[in-house]
């Protein structure tokens, strides 16, 4: 397991409290870039203007910080490409009954 | 904290402002169902009478508009990504509005004091103008407009029209001066309020919240956009032509276009629901979907009322008003409250504790079983009231009002549970 996979694993602890699924299985994480000093997570949300906005990005930062306490964590929230249901894992799809 | 986070958290207004509006509204709902029960013998018959006017305004101002104010203070900054212009004005508006509603309801119940009624209507106008100013000043900074924004902007315009028309009606009761029949003007006041203000807000907010809650993606918004123009133009048309003679045909055309516009909205909602990923309806969505069906029913009844002499059919106006207030708007508000209030309280109390301690899921914030019981009680109460009013049976009306009161108590219990979590 490389570091990015481990970070992904850590991010599985971040649950969307409305949907009840974690953000990795929902397909919200687009990319993780790790440098010597910083870890940047590029991600989206299911809809722009989502009221969970602040919370979820903060939890991602916290999860990354817990994984790598000596590096700074940065969240890059993007809307291009927009999230689509195809990005969900088969596990998430199963849970939503798709 | 990243720069992004500090910017996004700055959008949402303080919890205590929104909570104040919601709590006042929830208590108005209890007062509304309680007074209906208390005055059940006075309900049947002609609709333009003090107790019905008092009850109607508890519903429209204390319950419906109060909730909308609170919800919009929360939603507009988040949905349009802009900071609320003034929290102080939102706070000030609350107290002025509350005094205005209390005064107006009191003066309807004691129909003799008409100066007091005018003073209350002035207070309500001041509160609504403050709201309109605050929202317009907020909207001036919006960089990216969307369909929800357009609907909300036009709803503010119709809120002001409703408020001014209401004030003119209050003055007219004390010093008659309106040349058009007072009841015609009342009809306009009520329709601009329910279609232009309440329904416009509901439509705009639905386009944002329903896809978000049901995870709906990949639908076109064309029908929803067409609904916007149809309803706005027709409502402006009706408000204008009713001041002139020989405009009956135009009145019918505009009324028909409003009906078409509302059905366009309903079809848009159907398209959104069809594309949803979360197939199972939770309790909030169940209430909301039922409310949309009720809107469909109400709209047909409204269309029929434009061509029949409704004042002479016993209780028809009451049936129409009741289905709008309880069947359509209240079901929708209760449903959305079961989604929004748990989120706001959760966000306020637990958001910062995630990862540090065990926090509840949103659905664990209230008793879901009770919310379901409330749903069936409300639906039963609505249909029981409609049939009882149609058949004009006092005992049926009494039973239906008891059931509605019970449902409001469950609502109060569940909302209190959430706020205390």
Structural features, described:
The complex is a heterodimer of chains A (98) and B (421). Chain A is an alpha+beta fold. Chain A has helices at 3-11, 53-67, 90-95, and strands at residues 15-16, 21-22, 29-34, 38-43, 72-77. Chain A has a three-stranded mixed β-sheet with strand order 3-4-5, covered by helices on one side. Chain A is globular and about 40 Å long. Chain B contains 14 helices and no strands. Among the domains of chain B are: 1-144; 313-352 and 359-421, no CATH class. Chain B has helices at 3-11, 15-38, 40-43, 50-79, 87-109, 114-139, 147-174, 182-214, 222-241, 248-274, 283-307, 316-349, 368-391, 394-420. In chain B, 46% of the residues are buried. The A-B interface holds A 13-15, 17-20, 46-47, 49-55, 57-59, 61-63, 66, 74-77, 83-85, 96-98 and B 1-2, 4-5, 8-9, 12, 74, 78-81, 146, 208, 211-213, 215, 217-218, 277-280, 343, 346-347, 351-352, 354-355, 359, 361-363.
Write a brief structural summary.
The complex is a heterodimer of chains A (98) and B (421). Chain A has 98 residues and is of the alpha+beta class.
Helix-strand blueprint:
The complex is a heterodimer of chains A (98) and B (421).
Chain A: H1 3-11, E1 15-16, E2 21-22, E3 29-34, E4 38-43, H2 53-67, E5 72-77, H3 90-95
Parallel strand pairs in A: 4-5
Antiparallel strand pairs in A: 1-2, 3-4
Chain B: H1 3-11, H2 15-38, H3 40-43, H4 50-79, H5 87-109, H6 114-139, H7 147-174, H8 182-214, H9 222-241, H10 248-274, H11 283-307, H12 316-349, H13 368-391, H14 394-420
Helix pairs in contact in B: 2-4, 2-5, 2-14, 4-5, 4-6, 4-8, 4-12, 5-6, 6-7, 7-8, 7-9, 8-9, 8-10, 9-10, 10-11, 11-12, 12-13, 12-14, 13-14
């Amino acid at each position: 397991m490389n570091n990015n996979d481990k970070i992904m694993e850590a991010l599985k602890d971040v649950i969307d409290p409305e949907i009840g699924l974690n953000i990795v299985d929902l397909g919200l994480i687009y990319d993780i870039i790790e440098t010597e000093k910083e870890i940047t997570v590029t991600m989206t949300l299911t809809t722009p203007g989502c009221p969970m906005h602040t919370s979820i990005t903060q939890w991602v930062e916290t999860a990354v910080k817990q994984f790598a306490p000596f590096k700074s964590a940065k969240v890059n929230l993007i809307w291009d490409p927009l999230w689509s249901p195809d990005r969900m894992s088969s596990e998430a799809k199963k849970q939503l009954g798709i | 904290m990243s720069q992004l986070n500090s910017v996004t958290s700055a959008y949402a207004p303080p919890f205590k402002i929104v909570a104040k509006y919601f709590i006042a509204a929830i208590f108005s709902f209890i007062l509304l169902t309680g007074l209906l029960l208390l005055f059940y013998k006075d309900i049947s018959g002609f609709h333009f009478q003090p107790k019905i006017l008092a009850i109607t305004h508890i519903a429209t101002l204390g319950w419906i508009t109060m909730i909308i104010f609170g919800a919009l203070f929360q939603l507009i900054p988040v949905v349009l990504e802009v900071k609320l212009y003034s929290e102080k004005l939102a706070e000030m508006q609350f107290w002025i509005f509350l005094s205005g509603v209390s005064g107006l309801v009191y003066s309807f119940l004691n129909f003799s004091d008409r100066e007091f009624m005018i003073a209350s209507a002035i207070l309500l106008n001041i509160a609504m103008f403050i709201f309109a100013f605050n929202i317009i000043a907020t909207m001036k900074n919006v960089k990216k407009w969307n369909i929800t924004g357009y609907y909300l902007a036009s709803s503010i315009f119709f809120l002001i029209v409703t408020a001014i028309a209401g004030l003119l009606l209050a003055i007219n009761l004390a010093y008659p001066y309106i040349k058009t029949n007072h009841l015609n003007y009342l009809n306009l006041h009520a329709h601009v309020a329910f279609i232009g203000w309440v329904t416009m807000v509901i439509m705009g907010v639905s386009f944002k919240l329903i896809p978000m809650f049901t995870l709906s993606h990949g639908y076109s918004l064309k029908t929803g956009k067409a609904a916007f123009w149809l309803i706005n133009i027709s409502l402006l048309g009706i408000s204008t032509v009713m001041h002139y003679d020989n405009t009956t045909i135009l009145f019918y055309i505009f009324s028909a276009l409003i009906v078409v516009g509302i059905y366009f909205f309903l079809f848009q909602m159907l398209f959104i629901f069809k594309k949803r990923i979360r197939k199972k309806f939770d309790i909030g969505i169940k209430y909301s979907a039922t409310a949309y069906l009720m809107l469909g029913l109400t709209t047909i009844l409204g269309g029929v009322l434009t061509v029949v002499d409704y004042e002479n059919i016993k209780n028809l106006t009451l049936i129409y008003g009741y289905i709008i207030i309880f069947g359509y708007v209240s079901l929708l508000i209760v449903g959305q409250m079961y989604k929004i209030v748990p989120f706001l309280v959760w966000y306020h109390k637990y958001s910062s504790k995630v990862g540090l301690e065990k926090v509840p899921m949103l659905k664990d914030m209230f008793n879901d079983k009770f919310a379901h019981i409330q749903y069936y009680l409300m639906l039963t109460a609505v249909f029981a009231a409609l049939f009882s009013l149609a058949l004009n049976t006092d005992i049926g009306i009494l039973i239906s009002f008891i059931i509605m009161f019970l449902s409001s108590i469950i609502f109060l219990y569940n909302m209190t549970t959430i706020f205390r979590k």
